Amino acid sequence: MSSFRTIQPSPLPLHAQVRESLRERILDGTFPPHAQLPAESELGSIFGVSRITVRQALGDLQREGIVIKIPGKGSFVAKPKAYQQLTQLEGFAEAMSRLGHTIRNLVTSHKIVDATAQVAQRLQLAPGTPVSEIRRVRHLDREPVSLEVTYLPKDIGERLRHEDLQGRDIFLILENDYRIPLGHADLQIEAVSADDALAHALQVPAGTALLRLERLTHTEDGIPLDFEYLYIRGDAFQYRLRIARRRDDVPIYNRKNHADTHPDR
Amino acid sequence: MTATTPLVRKNVTSLYEQIAMQLREEALGGLYEPSGKLPSEAQLCERFAVSRITVRLALDRLTEEGVVERKQGKGTYVSGKQVRHNLDALRSFHDSLVMQGLKPEMRVLSKEVVPLPAHLRPLFGKKTSHCVLLERLHLADGEPIAVGISYLPREVDELGREEIASRPNYALLKSLNGEGIARADVAIRAQLADRRIARLLKTKTGSAVLVMTRTSAFRNGECCDHSTFFIRPERYEFVASCTFQPA
Fold this sequence. Notes:
The structure holds two protein chains of two kinds. Chain A is built from ten helices and nine strands. By secondary structure, chain A is α+β, with helices and mostly antiparallel strands. In chain A, a hairpin with a 2-residue loop joins strand 4 (130-140) and strand 5. The longest helix of chain A has 14 residues, at 14-27. Chain A is elongated, with a radius of gyration of 23 Å. Chain B is an alpha+beta fold. The longest helix of chain B is centred in the N-terminal third of the chain and has 14 residues, at 15-28. The model of chain B has no long low-confidence stretch (mean pLDDT 85). Chain B starts with 14 loop residues before the first helix and ends with a strand. Chain B is built from eight helices and ten strands. At the A-B interface, helix 1, helix 4, helix 6, helix 8 and strand 6 of A face helix 3, strand 1, helix 4, helix 7 and strand 7 of B.
């Protein structure tokens, strides 16, 4: 446990320092997802603080969803909440949970189309292969906020016709009902101006700034399954995430500069 | 204007292939540099005097071949020229351009010590009364790509003029305590460029820009950087890899 830095004189409260130190070790992978954290008493002696302080620090991390406490067993690192991050569009989750807004997906079309070159390439199919295309406009309190165009293999897309796509997330149907375990997703985020079709779908003036996401979700086995274009009103949402700095994030030229210049100061 | 080889119209099925061939040569030959943007479908219809369906078939062909990428709301672009800012690792904006193999430059637009704006007080803490407001223009291969507006600790003002001009924020922050930042919270959104941003980025007022807001902290959790980057969106995208996690 020598990887923890010692608590130093600082205006920050002790529990906050312990919390940040733990957070750092979790974010940098010292404690990977599912790893058990040292016992409260052990952390207390590592940091030289009381057990109450440790408990307070763990409690903060638990509330943030970074740590899970299992009674009688200890504290564990939570699996990264990437899915929440992916959809953690500011205003959305908050509006849902705190303000009691309603979210509704309006399915504007659900059909079989020939895969365009890009869709085929992403889903690893031959161009022109029939695929399911589902277009949904997500409404927050009856106001359209995003257009989501989803491409799936035809058989899965057809099966989804029987599901409640208005109220439920496709990912959750795939995982929970169809028992298709999902793995990682690759994401691209860009900004675009709404053309006439997008402006019409989202009921905004043409030229409005939109966030455009491309998301390719794979099964647990790494097979591309679900490819989406998301067009999100730029005034309504933002995409948020937290990133920890690792040493290898610094380009070599900079590391060298630091080594060269720092002793002069 | 572009020289258009006359199309052989007798063979209707290959009309789009002829257009694809010509566009392929132009795209790979660098005709659409530096923006990488191909003419619109309507412009191509006019130029080749063909229907939109034929133009689309040609562009589909080039997309399949990976020569171009088509983006709704954005147009058709020569592939592989996109700047991809990887969010899986935390880097200064400047360094993320370096990692792309570009030759980025920074120009200081302004640097001054200002009272900490009220909305940043909860981030920097009550004891911070002033901070350095640093505005820089980022260029990639000589073209403006982003305007960065950063609030940094006041001590940054004591660093040398040349250091501030030439080094990214994260390098400056590392100079302060030898350790540098530990993490950042990043938010990405889209908005319309106001007049000043548009002028600096050499784009039109009211065109969409990509906006990244970043709040960085030292190891001890102290906030040391609140930056907003206004980015020209044409060839810039953020990429990330995530793992699915049911709620």
